[in-house]
């Protein structure tokens, strides 16, 4: 094949599936990040930190990949159609789309907590993780607290010491990033593509060390997906090498720390390399990736309540037996991963209901406007 021949391109539907595949694998990374490091540190102190050098176990980086993918998913429909009504539909449906699954996951956590099924505090003390695993569900919840948290507080007044689901610390930046994307899309509709505006906003977000930078990078990547030229074979190889360089740098101990700007830039670079590399895209378009994409939000929502209840209880029971530490670690990890995927599958009807309800809600709210088929978000 000629060196200047474009690498194999993807259809619009495949591009959306590609984003879903990346999101799906990122959700698995978060699950592994919350399952293995504390267990391995209990087995051999310091092992968990070494494990997090592997990109697949770097849950914080995976969360910022979520943010980048959100920026892509929310903007790619408008980039393709140019229809401003799609922006309005996405904006109206955003809160119900998020609130319904959040409420159901928090309701389950509430039921487990009030019935005394949360055992993470004891495990946190045992494995020397009082500031993380031991810090969850250390408050007396009420049903009114649950309602306020699920439909407002999780977005506007998130308190990590009074949360029904600790992974939901991402919701304030998720809502803020969504609002920023919608504003930028409206700006783009009025004034066209202005790279200087993106650059200005990006510089401000970089100076503020804001996680919203990841959403902006996602929007820029969506433009490149829709309007960018086909990638040549050699450029595709360069993007593959760029992806591998980041992975190797993390293995070598190069830290991305907890700096939101650095995490945003690294996550954006990884997503961009995947979308532009003909060598990487097939992996994220596979049937496994497609399934992981379907399970991504359910898996993200269910795994910490399960870790704090079922897996923590099993861990405590195993510790009381005459069983070696490695076996306890393997058994607890397998139980946590198995239960999380099982619960995620069971959660799929909730996820589908949230999507359908949010679409009908936006259709009802905007019924007097011109009919259109907005992209999914």
Chain-wise SSE layout:
Layout: H1 12-43, H2 47-51, H3 59-81, H4 84-114, H5 120-126, H6 143-156, H7 171-191, H8 195-207, H9 212-227, H10 233-251, H11 260-276, H12 281-284, H13 287-319, H14 325-365
Helix pairs in contact: 1-3, 1-13, 1-14, 3-4, 3-7, 3-9, 3-11, 4-6, 4-7, 4-13, 4-14, 5-13, 7-9, 8-9, 9-11, 10-11, 13-14
Describe this structure in words.
73% of the residues lie in helices and 0% in strands. Helix 3 runs antiparallel to helix 4 (84-114) and helix 5 packs across helix 13 (287-319). With 377 residues, it is mainly alpha-helical. The model is unreliable at 1-9 and 371-377 (pLDDT under 50). It contains 14 helices and no strands. The chain has one domain (13-365). The radius of gyration is 21 Å and the shape is globular. The chain has helices at residues 12-43, 47-51, 59-81, 84-114, 120-126, 143-156, 171-191, 195-207, 212-227, 233-251, 260-276, 281-284, 287-319, 325-365.
